[in-house]
Amino acid sequence: MCGIVGYVGKHKAAPLILEGLKRLEYRGYDSAGIAVWQDGKFAVAKKTGRVANLEPEAAKLRLTGTYGMGHTRWATHGGVTDANAHPHVSSDGKIVLIHNGVIENYASMKKFLLGKGYTFKSETDTEVLCNLIAYHLAKEAEDPDESRFVSAVRKTLRHAEGTYGIVVMCSEMPGELVTARKGSPLILGIGDGESLVASDVAAIVSRTQSVVYLKDGEIAHLTPQRFAITTLTSGEVSPVIDKVTWSISDADLNGHAHFMEKEIFEQPAALENAMRGRFSEDGSTANFGGLNITAGEFRGFDRFQFCACGTALHACMVTEHLMERFARVPVECDYASEFRYRNMPLFRNTLFFVMSQSGETIDTLAAMREAKRKGYKVLAINNVVGSTIAREADGGIYQHVGHEVGVASTKAFTSQLLIGAMLSLYVARLRDMSFSEGVEIVQALKGSPELVRTALQQAEHIKGIAKRYAKYRDMLFLGRLSLYPIALEGALKLKEISYIHAEGYPAAEMKHGPIALVSEECPAVFFVSSGEMFNKVVSSMQEIKARKGKIIAVATADCKLPEGLADEVIPIPECHEAVLPIVATIPVQLLSYYVAVELGRDVDKPRNLAKSVTVE
Ligand code: F6R
Q1: Inside any domain, residue 616
Q2: Which terminal CB of the chain, N or C, has fewer other CB atoms within 10 Å?
């Protein structure tokens, strides 16, 4: 979603800001802008479309200043226009602002400001906030304890309802940035004679690995030499400086055409990283360092509740299946966006889990806060170290798969599946699962990187299938049990990057409606394994075939499909049910990717999508 970069230091700000904005492109946006302090005033350029469209506009301004900010906007209030792009400048020219989030009471603020003679050039809530800061600055008296600039921002934010991550510049205090957050992530970068702020570490990691994760309700005041953090309501905060563990090369393509391709092929290594050091010495269970819940306490929970969004929810659904199967404990999964408003009756002995690659998805965060408010413990399965969800959870499990840039989640998803399987094993071994069954599952999980490597060898075969199937406008994805969520995931991957309409269903459910879609024009992707559901899935395939639907079968190598039933077969290695969902995911990731490439889609930046969804 929207991206923020702010810089104050000794180097020219514009190239650093533009580079930072490019590093944030993966998050999804529809316009971009930059403002730099130049010859005693703010020079501003804004443009719809990519950062590449903004660059020539910025070049015309010959920006040499060392104090500035940039933004990529994903439209919420107001259409995608140059005027609505950020930064916004107050009508008196003194305040410049960039903002992620939504100010819900902007209309009443605007009415107030119009009455005071402030004028507006855009339809945005951000410009309203900007003018309100200018209004407070104009009224603010000198105070020996705090800069007028910080006080004006603080006073404004006390009136703001909704969510924000903001960075503000002021013509009366050039060389100072004020930044604050509520609900939208912000990270301060502490450099050598320079200070930075960004909505995502990716934008600043090339300049510094020393960062401070700003918390909700905090305001930071940055100059090149120092930074100070206070809360909205009270005094100074002692900041914790963290070290970012990944480097800028993690955000490069390394010879791949797209980040999605790179990340698909990184999966064997990603799985190794996600399980490293996490099996017990006796090789019969998994261990996690950061749960902050003892084994005894774990045994005391009668139910588990998972909440997540999108792809992460699919990983929760697979975990539900494995946990119920291995540990015989009831598990529920819910869309985080629904859970937060459903006010669902819950059993007291329930342990909560949220799953989120970014750790910033607003609905997942809100579901977690709602569960905590009701007194439940919440553990987070999350990839981004230091994210809001990771910090607010009672404990959790990091995915450790490195920076995922592609908007379509791939390596983060399979690592969530792996962690879900490991967690199921852990819980099962605290209950009834035997030592030998535990050992068998540990061995299977340890073998998953190799199985994924084998599945990836089908890439050229799948590319050929993609060329033949890219012409279709609709596709069904069908599977059963733990492969039903993989059918959902296959459909989601295809539609989000190729814009082909796709639906995932439990294969047997097809007869209750979706079968009406089946014709020569609507192929179906089936997931088939040789297990208990084999004959039933084959029957569903026959029903499609009888209606002239083409079939792509993702089938384990030991499946003996009736001759001629599938038009295309993508073989995957035979494997344990704990790793089957991981292995079955690989072909549909590759199929979606190659179809999207065939159709010339912008794979890493699909239209309308954002990498982390920080608005409701
Ligand atoms: C799809 C995709 C999204 C995310 C969803 C939740 O490929 O990536 O569906 O899974 O937006 O994001 P996180 O996991 O960051 O909470």
Answers
A1: no
A2: C
